Amino acid sequence: MSRKRPPKKQVRRRARRRFPWSLLWKLLAVLLLVAAVVLVWMDAQVRQRFDAHQWQLPARVYAQPVELYSGRVLEWQHLEQMLALLRYRNAASAPMPGSYQRQGGTVLLHTRAFRDSDGGEPARQLRLTLANGRIQKVAAADGSTLPVARLEPLQVGSIHPGHSQDRILVRLGDTPQLLHDMLLAVEDRGFYEHHGVSPRGLARAVWSNLRSGGVSQGGSTLTQQLVKNFYLSQRRTIGRKLMELPMAVLLELHYEKEQILETYLNEVYLGQDGARAIHGMGLAAQFYFGRALEELEPHQLALLVGMLKGPSYYDPRRNPERAERRRNVVLTVAHEQGLLSERDYGIALERPLDVVPKGAGALYAFPAFIDLVRRQLARDYPAEALSSEGLQIHSTLDVLAQLAAEDALARTLRQRDADGSQQLNGAVVITAPDQGDVLAIVGDRTPRSAGFNRALDALRPIGSLAKPMVVLTALEQPKRFSLATIINDEPLEVSMPNGQVWAPKNVDNRSMGPMPMAEALARSRNQAMARLGMDVGLQPIIATLQRLGVQGNIRPYPSLILGSHNMTPFEVAVMYQPLATGGFRTPLRAITDVLDLHGTPLARYPVSADPVVQEAPAYLTQWAMVKVMSEGTGRAAYNTLPHDLMVAGKTGTSDGLRDAWFAGFSGNHLAVVWIGRDDNQPAGVAGSSAALPVWTQVMAKLPQRSLRMDPPVDVEWVWMEPDGKTRSDAGCDGAVLYPMWTPSIPGVLSACAAARQTPAGEERRGWLRRLFD
């Protein structure tokens, strides 16, 4: 008996019921496997990036801590400028670090704590008494006198990473509690309750997005925002949101809330400074307010929190009214949550934004000096290390010396630009000779300009600045020359290989005839110095320049004697350094040490000194340059400087009055000044009338120590006849006293000197006879 088959429709219906379930389970298994793989990948990504925290941080450059002590030269103007750069605020009784109050001739300072290679200083109140351009007293809060106090190092620049992100890392424990509370009150009130995702916030966001027909609201927790900034793009898409949710949960599974909050404070984007992206609350506090994050007041913290909603939209510099409204919303939320009292809330609402002008902070203060730091660091560190590892660069910059140099150059150029054309420009370099520290560099009449750095790059003929090197070379030949050697200041002609004739002239177009070498230098007589240089020889002069640190090809032309060689102001400072140190070449340094992100020393730049000039000729050259200041072309400096301050220097003027130079030094400062026009056209300036006034003003504003002119053991004081060849005696007519290197002292005595010299025994008997008579 045959079995009856079911109808075909029924068979097809059963087949349809069985087939989808099998495929569905297979698809579900595949999806679960893919989801597991994706979650494992996400988990690895979350932990790897968060654990590494490989932010690319710029190297930061700091000046020397400013030392304050009784007797230091310091005018209120420069103290005020320095405090402005350090972002100290004027507040009654100076209640907190980073504040001050002026009370007549007394300044109450509340300094900030800092650490450096010398141990650092605690935060404390100081009372400075200023009078007559000097510090009269430094006292602690209790009135006790302090021998010295130090202000924190000023950050003067940074070397930014290649991707243009910048941040100042902060620790959660060092940031204001009010900032945390405001942030959570506005951005994520349930931060400490949720596990990375807020269901309520998501539901609110989904409803808002459905109503708007797009992605208009994110509903993100603070953890989700961190994931978006840290791992994902800023684009608002469903795909990004689907990635963001599980990554936020994974982040919360692995890390404490405090770690997440600290990372958020350092990562969040808060604006743009040209090509530089401002990340983190630490840098934003400096960028917008010029102050450390821990020093901000409630209205300033509220602005930073408010800007998180849209840094460009609420930019306080471009949209101040919009930014103020947003700030006030944050203040209101903080007040409603009990974070601000009624009184503090009212005060904060009335405060202005207090945003500093863009580019007004210390990070933009001294671009010419930062240029030198970059060049010196480039010799020892690869570019990626300088721009990504957060190195701390301790420099030699003296803020007060820098301010004095800027003021002196600007004031002199304004006075000379009577017609307002501003065609003149200039440069100043200041060093500490013994240490080789570069204390200040000005590369433009507008010192905050980051353009052409004349101090390092303006190659100009040095004029009479070369003459001390000619004298030094001559004095190194003691059998032929001494400071008493007579040189003829008369016209001369030197035939050149190309058939031309070199015939130098004096500035006054006059010739003064025979004169001692020391006087020829003091009066800067071109014809006399040209004769001396030709007699000494061009090759020995070139060798001297090279020993003093002059680089490059020095052509053996006679005009070299009078300074035809092109040099930058910085190179002139290098050349003059051995003259200031008594014959030791100390390489100029802009850096003292380099520390890593955590303050561990990586490299030190110690002081080194190599003898390049013998002690006796170095001393004699210094003595001749002292005469330049006391009797010669530099004597106008003593209209300003104290008459008991012994300094040495030399004026320089190039052909056609194109370049005005002055280079000179005291016992502790060397300064070089150049003034001229960028187009190399005649500027109508001379060293004594344009560069010397700048040099004098700079030196007058710095604490100075006189040159010590104790002669070396092989230098003797000798009376000489006017002919420069015969020894004389103090009582002989026309006798002049010179310091002389022992090998150069002539053995020939004048008749007067021979008659006055008596054996020691005869002299004693003559003294006794006069006594008894």
UniProtKB/TrEMBL annotation:
InterPro entries noted in UniProt: Beta-lactam/transpept-like (IPR012338), Glyco_trans_51 (IPR001264), Glycosyltr_51/Transpeptidase (IPR050396), Lysozyme-like_dom_sf (IPR023346), PBP_1b (IPR011813), PBP_transglycosylase (IPR036950), PCN-bd_Tpept (IPR001460), UB2H (IPR028166)
UniProt KW keywords: Antibiotic resistance, Carboxypeptidase, Cell membrane, Cell shape, Cell wall biogenesis/degradation, Glycosyltransferase, Hydrolase, Membrane, Multifunctional enzyme, Peptidoglycan synthesis, Protease, Transferase
Catalytic activity: Preferential cleavage: (Ac)2-L-Lys-D-Ala-|-D-Ala. Also transpeptidation of peptidyl-alanyl moieties that are N-acyl substituents of D-alanine; [GlcNAc-(1->4)-Mur2Ac(oyl-L-Ala-gamma-D-Glu-L-Lys-D-Ala-D-Ala)](n)-di-trans,octa-cis-undecaprenyl diphosphate + beta-D-GlcNAc-(1->4)-Mur2Ac(oyl-L-Ala-gamma-D-Glu-L-Lys-D-Ala-D-Ala)-di-trans,octa-cis-undecaprenyl diphosphate = [GlcNAc-(1->4)-Mur2Ac(oyl-L-Ala-gamma-D-Glu-L-Lys-D-Ala-D-Ala)](n+1)-di-trans,octa-cis-undecaprenyl diphosphate + di-trans,octa-cis-undecaprenyl diphosphate + H(+)
Main location: membrane
A UniProt-annotated Pfam family: UB2H
Subcellular location: Cell membrane
Signal peptide: none
Keyword Cell membrane included in the entry's annotation: yes
UniProt key word DNA damage: no
Pathway the protein acts in: Cell wall biogenesis; peptidoglycan biosynthesis
Segments forming domain Penicillin-binding protein transpeptidase: 426-698
Domain Bifunctional transglycosylase second: from-to ranges: 68-151
Domain (Glycosyl transferase family) ranges: 163-332
Function: Cell wall formation. Synthesis of cross-linked peptidoglycan from the lipid intermediates. The enzyme has a penicillin-insensitive transglycosylase N-terminal domain (formation of linear glycan strands) and a penicillin-sensitive transpeptidase C-terminal domain (cross-linking of the peptide subunits).
Matching PANTHER family: BINDING PROTEIN TRANSPEPTIDASE, PUTATIVE-RELATED (PTHR32282), PENICILLIN-BINDING PROTEIN 1B (PTHR32282:SF11)
Family, similarity comment: In the C-terminal section; belongs to the transpeptidase family.
Stated name of the protein: Penicillin-binding protein 1B
Gene assigned in the entry: mrcB
